[in-house]
Amino acid sequence: MNYRLTMVCILKKGLTLVSTSFLLGTAFAAGGDFPLDSAPDRLNNNASLQNGAKIFVNYCSGCHSAVNLRYNRLRDIGLTDQQIKDNLILGDQKVGDLMTISTNPKDAKAWFGKVPPDMSVVARSRGTDWLYTYFRTYYKDPDSPTGWNNLVYPNVGMPHVLWQLQGERAAIFENVKDAKDPGKTTKAFKGFEQLSPGLMKPQEYDDNIADLVSFMSWMAEPTQLQRKRIGVVVLLFLAIFTLIAWRLNKAYWKDIR
């Protein structure tokens, strides 16, 4: 591979990560106090990743691009070119094209207040636990411009695009005394009230969100499993080489000492 081209690709991805981190710091700024749930790790499960890819394409890619990933990279999770064409390419793109969107950035900014960030590296920027909790803590809020709010990201500008799957829920809050100032009260989250059922049961919805988050984690770095395997091999090699070098050193110097 051309060295200059490789460095350009690395620099481009690095700049994307920095810019996405900045956007998420503003567009996805969370309250920071809500406890995060642990996201299941399904990076080794191709069936889960394929389901996550389907959810991403059908519910997320209308507004969020993934410009560091090409459709043909989905072969790595067990899909054929024909399956990618039939199930995951909704426009006129080709299998070798980047996962871009047709939404105009100016229109997106007008609709949501900010341009929706590219999702190529969002899992690395925010973390899978944040994403897993975020997608599962939407609730109806009549005071919000979109009619929705989120416990992880208060006053979220993004509507709940998965509401048909999860159903409509209301958040129950209770006024409690502020631990730092007893004279003040704060709102404490107590639970959800299901207003209308979704197409999925709660456990089924959580399971599908785990698949989506796992796919987003894979999408952020498709080679991460290979990188980790190579890392283990390298560490084992270095450990064995160190032992051999230590023994050779003792053998070389034994007569002198």
UniProtKB/TrEMBL annotation:
Question: Can you quote a single GO CC term?
Answer: membrane
Q: What Gene Ontology terms describe what this protein does at the molecular function level?
A: electron transfer activity; heme binding; metal ion binding
Binding-site residues for heme c, renumbered to this chain: C60, C63, H64
ATP-binding is among the record's keywords = no
Q: Which residues form a coiled coil?
A: none
Q: Which compartments does it reside in? A: Membrane
Q: Which residues form the signal peptide?
A: 1-29
Entry cofactors: heme c
Task: Identify the Pfam families for this entry.
Answer: Cytochrom_C1
Q: Recite the UniProt cofactor note for this protein.
A: Binds 1 heme c group covalently per subunit.
| Limits of the Cytochrome c domain | 47-216
| InterPro entries to which the protein is assigned, alphabetical | Cyt_c-like_dom (IPR009056), Cyt_c-like_dom_sf (IPR036909), Cyt_c1 (IPR002326)
Transmembrane is among the record's keywords: yes
Which keywords has UniProt assigned to this entry? Heme, Iron, Membrane, Metal-binding, Signal, Transmembrane, Transmembrane helix
Q: Transmembrane region positions?
A: 230-248
Protein name, as recorded: Cytochrome c1
From which source organism is this entry?
Answer: Polynucleobacter sp. UK-FUSCHL-C3
